Amino acid sequence: MKDLFGKAILDFQTNNSPEDLITATSISEEDEMSVQYLFRSYDEMPKIEQKALQLASGKVLDVGCGAGSHSLTLQNDRNLDVMAIDISEKAIATCKLRGLENTKVQNILDFEGQKFDTILLLMNGTGIFGKLVNCNQYLSKLKSLLNPGGQILIDSSDIIYMFDEDEDGGKWIPSEKEYYGELEFTISYKGEKETPFDWLYLDYNTLQNAAIANGLQCELVLEGEHYDYLAKLSI
Question: For residue 175, is pLDDT > 70?
Answer without folding.
Answer: no
